[in-house]
Structures are given as C-alpha cells and as structure tokens.
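ARCHIVE CARD
Drawer: 12
Card no.: 0347
Subject: one protein chain, sequence and derived structure
Cross-reference: see card 0346
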Amino acid sequence: MTRASVHFAASAADFGAARALCLEWLDWHWRNYPDGWPQGPDHPMNPDSFTASLADMPRRYARPRGGVLLGRVDGLVSACVMYHEARPGVAEFNRMFVSEAGRGHGLGRRMLDRMLRQMRDDGYGKVFFSSATFLTHARAMYEAAGFVAMPQPQDFPDAMRAYVYFMERRL
C-alpha cells in the first residue's frame, strides 16, 4: 500500500529537497513547453534567473506568513508547493509540482488541500496564482478545488498574456 504525506519544509535538507524538485520542475517545463511560445532572458522560467531565485526560498516563504510544503510518497520527497503573502489578507502560491515518479497517488490535490487549510489558519481570506495555459491537467484540478479565472495584473508583460492565466479563490 502506498503511503503519501505532506509536511512543512523545516530543515536545510527539506529546503534542499524543495530546490531539487523546483529544478526538476524547470526541466520538465522546458521538455514539455510548446513550440512557438515566448522564450528568452525575461521569461519567468528562464533557467538562470529561476535557479538564482531558489536561494531566497527559506526567507521568501518563511513562516508564519508563508511556507514550503513537501509531499512524500513512501518516504520519497515527490512534490512541493510554496506560498507567501502577496498583500494583507491575500496569499500567492507558486511552484506546485509533483515529480513524474510521484504522480498517480493524488498527491497534487492532497498538497493543494493542505496548503489551502494552512492559508486559512494563517489568516488569509483569498489566494491566487498564475500558470501556463498548456498545463490543462493542472487547471482542471484547480477548477475542481474552487478556483476561478481572474484578470491578469495590469503590469503583466504583454508578450506573455496569451500564454499565462491567473486564478483565485476565497478561503
């Protein structure tokens, strides 16, 4: 029987596992990225800037206003998601990823549900995120969890508008 669990990253080893999953996510993203979509140094998934941003993970997603959650399947770290305060009462989450080896166990939904409960406990009333439109399987999970489309921010780059969607939900 497969055992799945979710917990907060707390140790240096946990944050190292989260960084490794983020890099696996980055690799998966570029292997599956559709032809003809924007690329370049200002792309949010640019490997250099993305990798550099991981160094700040423990501070950016620090408790009590944020967190990094890790999911395990049979003891192996197989998923991560992280959130932080975007503005008072509103959280943003990033980097929801289940490794290819960890898929098929309901871990993505379990991670999402755990994160949403924690956000409520942290005092947030609303949450939002953005994702690439080609990730249709992820969007279906978010819609099933009660997320709805929201307008893109006014300062969102015009070159990316056709490729990225934003969703939100009340907690």
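Annotation on reverse: Helices lie at 12-32, 47-53, 57-60, 107-121, 136-144. The chain has one domain: 4-170.
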